[in-house]
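Handover notes (outgoing to incoming on-call)

Open items:
1. DUF3649 domain-containing protein: sequence verified, structure written out, both below. Nothing else pending on this one.
2. Nothing else urgent.
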Amino acid sequence: MPANPKYLTQSKWQRFAKITAAILGGYLVSISFHLALASWFNKANIIITMAFSGFILWVALMIVAFLAKNGWKIWLVYLGLSLLFTGLMYLGQTYNPITK
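DUF3649 domain-containing protein structure tokens:
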């Protein structure tokens, strides 16, 4: 049974924003989150865990992007989260430098 057209996104720009936010934005948030964790905790454990949890988080963020009403707002949220996690990564590397 096909989807009811009244529930589908009519604007091509909104559709484009949701698709790109789901794929690219979700990936950016997922990777920046795990890298921020790796800068504060054991790097090897986080990177190994990222092989599995990264894909799960990415798919969850894809679903959230398609559930949102406005694709540009979800892009704004994803970019904000990526910047937040990048800042945490910077602070983590500042306070916990790699020393060998």
